[in-house]
Amino acid sequence: MGKRTVVPIGPFHPLQEEPEFFTLTVEGERVVDIDVRIGYNHRGIEKLSERKNFDQSTFVIERICGICSTSHPFAYTRAVEDVFPMEVPERAKYIRTIIAEGERIHSHLLWAGLAGHFLGYNTVFMWVWKLREEILDVMEILSGNRNNYAMFKPGGVRRDIQEEDIGPALAKIESILPTMDMLIAAIKDDPVIHARTKGVGVLSEEAAINFSALGPTSRASGVSRDVRVDSPYGVYDRVDWDMIVTENGDVYDKVVVRMLETIESARIMVQCLSNLPPGEIDANIESVPPGDGIGHIEAPRGETFHFVRSDGTNRPVRHKVRAPTFMNLPTFKSTVVGETVSDATIILAAIDPCYCCTERVAVRDDKGKKIYSGTDLVELSRKKTERIMSRMGIR
Amino acid sequence: MIYLLYLLVYGFLATAALGLFLSWVDRKVTARVQYRVGPPLLQPLYDVVKLMGKENLIPAGASRLAFVSAPLIGFSSVVVVSALLWSNNLNPSQSFMGDWIVVIYLLTIPSISIIMGGFASKNPLASLGASREMKLLIAYELPFILAALVPVINSGGSLRLGEILTWQAEAGATATNLSGIIALLVMIPTIQAKLALVPFDIPEAETEIVEGPMVEYSGTGLALFKLMKNMLLFVIPFFATILFLDGITFQGIHILWGALKIVVLVALVTVIRNTNPRVRIDQALRFFWGPVTLLAVAAVVLAYLGL
C-alpha cells in the first residue's frame, strides 16, 4: 500500500460554484476513499416556507435552485393540490409541462457546458452556453423571465401564454434544433472526449438501484426510472416522447442521456405549444383543507419530492423538500473510488450536483465533530413534536 | 558588454514584449473562437504589472529558499535561452559549438523550476501538480529531442544553431524535406506540452487541482512565472522556426515573413488548445511515448537516409 495523502476539493474550488467539500484520500493519483461534506449554505427554506402562505411560498420555493427553478414550485404545487386532492385546468397542465421542459433543456445545456469546462474544453463551454441563451429567450417569450419564471401557483399557473407568442417561440425552438443535433454529433465523434469519459466513473445498474440514484444518473446506468413515465403528471402521458436509457453508466453515457433528453424536451415543447387547448388557467382555490400532500416530479436532475402538511389555515405547517442530488450524492462512493484525481472532478460533476438545494442541517462542535447523528436528530424532532402536541392539547 | 546587451535587450525586453503580444494573440483568438470579445492589446502587460504590485505570501512550512528562488531560476533560464536564440538568429556566425544542446537543456529548466516551486510550497494540490509536471516532462522530452535532432542530421551533424541556419539558407528550410515535415509534426504537440496548454495543461488543470504548482504563489513570484510562460510562448515557437523554418531574417520584407511564421505557429497552438479537452496524464504519456516517439524515430531514420 502506498503513502496516502488527502486532496481537498473545496470548500471553495473552481470546480463548482457552490460551497462543497470533498476529501479525496489518494494513493499517488488514485482515489481510495471519498468523504463528502455539505451544509455550508443552509438557508432554512423549509422553515421560511412554513411562515408564508401557500401562494407566497411558491416564490420562496422557486429560489431553492437557481437552475431547476421550476421543478421545486412544480412539485410543491402538486403537493398542495394533493392535499385536496384536485385537478388543475387542462390549459394549465399544458403550460406547466412547457415550462418544465424548457427548463430541462436549459439545465442540461448548462450542465453540458460546465462538463466541457471541467474537462478543460472551454470552447464547448462557451458554444453550449451561447446555444442556451436561445432557449432562455424562448422562456422569456413564454413567461416574461429568463429564469425564475414565477409561473406556478397552487391550482394552476399565474400567467397565460399569449397566442401571438406561440409562433415566435416555436420558430426559435425549431431554429436551435439543428445546432443541438450538430452538438450531439460533435460530442459523439470527438475521440478525445471519448478517451476522457468512456469507461470512467462507471455506476453499475445494481449500484444505481442500491443507491436509489435518480434521473439521468440512473437512466445512464440502464435503470429506466422517470417520474414522467412511472407516475405521469402534466400532459406527459398525452404527448409523444421517448425515455432515454443507456447501459454503461459511465460519464460518457451520462452526457449522451442528457444531450438526447434535450431533443426529447424540445419535441414535448413543440407538441404542447401546437396543441395548447383554450380555457381557464387557474382553478382559483380559496383555501387549503387540512391534510397531507405529496408532490413529485421529474426535475432535470431526477425526482424532486415535496411533502406539505396543512392544518386548514393559509400556511403549510410542515413543508419538506428532497432535492434529487440528495439521492445522487452517495453514488460517489461507488463511482469515484478507484479512479484517478483527474477523473474524479468530472465524475463528481457527472451527477449534475446541486448542493445548495440539498443542504441539510449538521450540528458540529468547534473541532468539526458531529454532535448529533441522524438518530439523535430524529429523537429531538420527536420530543419537539410531543411538546407541541401537549401544548395544543392533543395529548 | 555585448553579451550583456544581448541578455537585456533581446533576451529580456524584446522577448518579453513579443511574448506578451503573442499571449494577447492567443487570448484574442481564443476569445473569437468562443464568441467572446477578448482582452485589449495591453491586457497581458497589465496583468503582469498588477501582479508585481501585489503582496508576496510564503506559506507556513514551505521551504522558503526554494519557494522564492524557483520563479527566478525559471525566468532567468528563459532570458538566457532567448538571448542565445536571438544572437544566433541575428548573426549565425557568432554561435558556439554545442549551443543546440545548451538550448535544449535551458528549455527544460522552466518546467524544473515549476516542479521545484510546487514541491516547495507544501500544498497537496501543488505537489500533485508538480508530480504531474515531472511525468509530463519525462513524456514529451524524448520526442522533442528526437525531433530537434532532425535538422542537426540534415545539416551534416552540426550542433551549432548558426550552422543549421546557414545550411537552411542554402538548401532551403528543413521543413521542405520529408523528415523535416514529420519532425515539425512531432514538434507541435511537444510545443503544446512544453507550454502546458490544453490538451496537455495537466499540471495546472484549473478545475482539478487549481493551477497546481502555482496555487500558493502570489505577487512577484506569480508575476515572474506568468511572464516566463508568456515569454516561452515566443521562445519555443522561435526555436522551432530556427530549426525547421529557416529562422527569421532581419532584412526588409523578410521580417514580416518571419513574424508570420511565428504567429502561424502560435495560432496553430491556440487552435489546438481550443478544440480539445484536457487528457489524463497516463493518456499523455501513452500518446508521447507511443505514436509521437515512433514518428520522431521515423523522422530521424529518414533524415539519416538523406530524405
Describe the fold and architecture.
- The complex is a heterodimer of chains A (395) and B (307).
- The radius of gyration of chain A is 22 Å and the shape is flat.
- The longest helix of chain A is centred in the first third of the chain and has 29 residues, at 90-118.
- The N and C termini of chain A lie far apart (59 Å).
- Chain A has helices at 45-50, 54-62, 71-83, 90-118, 122-143, 163-189, 191-197, 205-210, 215-219, 227-230, 251-274, 325-328, 332-335, 341-350, 355-358, 374-392; strands at 4-9, 21-27, 30-37, 152-153, 156-157, 291-299, 302-310, 316-322.
- Chain A has 2 domains: 45-358, Cytochrome-c3 Hydrogenase, chain B; 370-395.
- In chain A, a hairpin with a 2-residue loop joins strand 2 and strand 3 (30-37).
- Chain A is 49% helix and 13% strand.
- By secondary structure, chain A is an alpha+beta fold.
- Chain B is mainly α.
- Chain B has one domain (2-304).
- Helix content of chain B is 73%, strand content 0%.
- Chain B has 11 helices and no strands.
- The longest helix of chain B is centred in the first third of the chain and has 32 residues, at 2-33.
- The model of chain B has no long low-confidence stretch (mean pLDDT 85).
- The A-B interface holds A 5-8, 13-15, 29, 116-127, 130, 190, 192-193, 195-196, 340-345 and B 30, 33-36, 124-125, 127-128, 198-199, 201-202, 205-210, 274-283.
Which helices and strands appear, and what pairs or packs with what?
The complex is a heterodimer of chains A (395) and B (307).
Chain A: E1 4-9, E2 21-27, E3 30-37, H1 45-50, H2 54-62, H3 71-83, H4 90-118, H5 122-143, E4 152-153, E5 156-157, H6 163-189, H7 191-197, H8 205-210, H9 215-219, H10 227-230, H11 251-274, E6 291-299, E7 302-310, E8 316-322, H12 325-328, H13 332-335, H14 341-350, H15 355-358, H16 374-392
Antiparallel strand pairs in A: 1-2, 2-3, 4-5, 6-7, 7-8
Helix pairs in contact in A: 2-3, 4-5, 4-11, 5-6, 6-11
Chain B: H1 2-33, H2 43-52, H3 64-90, H4 99-120, H5 124-154, H6 161-171, H7 178-194, H8 206-209, H9 219-244, H10 254-274, H11 281-304
Helix pairs in contact in B: 1-3, 1-9, 1-10, 2-9, 3-4, 3-9, 4-5, 5-7, 5-11, 7-9, 7-10, 7-11, 9-10
